From TrEMBL:
The chain crosses the membrane at residues 20-44, 64-87, 142-159. Keywords: Membrane, Transmembrane, Transmembrane helix. Pfam families: EII-GUT. PANTHER family: PTS SYSTEM GLUCITOL/SORBITOL-SPECIFIC EIIC COMPONENT, PTS SYSTEM GLUCITOL_SORBITOL-SPECIFIC EIIC COMPONENT. The keyword RNA-binding does not apply. GO terms for cellular component: membrane. One of its GO terms (biological process) is phosphoenolpyruvate-dependent sugar phosphotransferase system. InterPro entries: PTS_IID_sorb. This is PTS system, glucitol/sorbitol-specific IIC component. The keyword Membrane applies. The lineage of its organism: Bacteria, Bacillati, Bacillota, Negativicutes, Selenomonadales. It comes from the Bacteria.
Length: 176
């Protein structure tokens, strides 16, 4: 009988913990995301969706810009996780690669622009503490992280785009 009571207590504790996490989200990141989404949509409405789409087309018409400048702008201005919403300006066939590039850039930007992904700041702070202990400059490391990140997101974007287009064609999905 004690085992059953213990299992029942543990079972309900699992859901209580889930409720606590949910309450934290409701009072933490969800309001921030709602305000950010509202602000971005308002800005797009003020500037005009056609103008914003034209700017996005300039940034995404070229494969190099699509997986360097576009994700960097998204992560810098919208931060993680709302930066992924920039995918709305892309044709469906490019969205998986943009998502891959953006996700891959949320850490390398942190050294120069901590606001872009404050959740990853603890990683940067741990690395920077070691570098500082060695008496080495942090600025050079941050710039190297950033540049390496841009190179990596370009490679990942291109590879993911090619793989996505291959899978679309293989499954008979029109990509044009």
């Amino acid at each position: 009988m004690d085992l059953l009571a213990h299992l029942a207590t543990g079972f309900i504790a699992l859901f209580q913990k889930g409720g606590t996490v949910f309450a934290g989200l409701v009072t933490g990141i969800i309001p921030t995301l709602v305000v950010l989404i509202t602000a971005v949509n308002s800005l797009i409405g003020l500037v005009g969706e056609e103008k914003v789409n034209n700017i996005a087309k300039m940034c995404t018409g070229n494969i190099i810009l699509r997986y360097t400048i576009f994700p960097v702008i998204a992560v810098f201005f919208l931060t993680n996780p709302i930066c992924y919403s920039f995918g709305r300006f892309l044709p469906e066939k490019y969205k998986p690669a943009f998502q891959d590039a953006s996700i891959s850039f949320v850490h390398p930007i942190t050294g120069l622009f901590p606001h872009a992904n404050s959740a990853e700041l603890f990683v940067w702070m741990g690395i920077s503490q070691g570098i500082t202990t060695l008496g080495l400059p942090l600025g050079e490391l941050a710039v190297r992280y950033f540049i390496t990140g841009v190179i990596v997101i370009l490679m990942r974007g291109i590879i993911t785009e090619k793989a996505t287009l291959y899978m679309f064609r293989k499954n008979g999905i029109s990509v044009d």
